Amino acid sequence: MITENLSKIKTEIPNNVTLVAVSKTKPNDAIQEAYDNGQRLFGENKVQELVEKQASLPKDIEWHLIGHLQSNKVKYVAEFVSLIHAVDSLKLLVEINKQAKKHNRVIPCLLQFHIAQENTKFGFSFDEVIEIFESDIFISLENIEIQGVMGMATNTTNLEQVADEFRSLESYFLVLQSRFFKFNDSFKHISMGMSSDYKIAIEEGSTMIRVGSTIFGSR
Ligand SMILES: *Cc1c(COP(=O)(O)O)cnc(C)c1O
């Protein structure tokens, strides 16, 4: 079914929206099937699982870490991760920068915003991000590149609320872009939308959706 699911979702999303196939908890052969159908971009939410899969699957896969990341685990993924979606503290950015430097690379990152009505979800407020962008520490970090924002909407059947939350993430993105990245094309991603809400997210300006169960089946 993976092959069919993948080709169906590809017909539903516009060309300017990037599909991250979220393969967490799924075995390597499921990922390989998606790979054999042309998918090269996969997302995992746990460091250990990501490291194991990266070691045993094709080397041209781009691996995104989409889940909450603890500072002490950055070192395990720093060599190969192609985008970290859920950066939620300056401390974490400092550590990513340090580990990226060891590998002589720049690690692309997204800042996670708290947009949901649930207090269980991680993420910055808008004011916290402004404070970080204006701090001397942040300005000194040369081995990270902030490529955009990420958020998760409330898990609710109220679709208007979901749309409102995605709209707020897009507006944060646009304000930050005009204020801090006017001459910098690398600030370009709005990572929002999962299996239950990616269609709404795309309507509200998502550039990158993270879809798991719609492709690989329920977990
Ligand atoms: C699991 C997960 C997804 C994908 O969820 P589905 O509902 O299976 O599409 C997206 N984003 C994050 C951060 C996740 O942890």
Tell me what you see in this structure.
With 219 residues, the chain is of the alpha/beta class. 42% of the residues lie in helices and 18% in strands. It contains ten helices and eight strands. Strands 7-6-5-4-3-2-1-8 form an eight-stranded parallel β-sheet. α2 links the parallel β1 and β2. The longest helix has 22 residues. The protein is globular. 38% of the residues are buried. The model has no long low-confidence stretch (mean pLDDT 97).
Descriptors:
219 residues, alpha/beta, 10 helices, binds pyridoxal-5'-phosphate, 8-stranded parallel sheet
Enumerate the distinct ligands: pyridoxal-5'-phosphate
Decide which structural class fits the backbone. alpha/beta
Our Rg estimate from Cα atoms comes to 17 Å
Distance between the termini: 15 Å
| Morphology | globular
Major sheet summary line:
8 strands, parallel
H and E order: HEHEHEHEHEHHEHEHEH
Strand content: 15-25%
Strand order, sheet with most strands: 7-6-5-4-3-2-1-8
Which residue ranges are poorly predicted, with pLDDT under 50 across at least 5 consecutive positions?
A: none
Helix content: 40-55%
Topology record:
Blueprint: H1 2-12, E1 18-22, H2 28-36, E2 41-44, H3 47-56, E3 62-65, H4 74-77, E4 83-87, H5 90-102, E5 107-113, H6 126-133, H7 136-139, E6 144-151, H8 159-180, E7 189-191, H9 198-203, E8 208-211, H10 213-216
Parallel strand pairs: 1-2, 1-8, 2-3, 3-4, 4-5, 5-6, 6-7
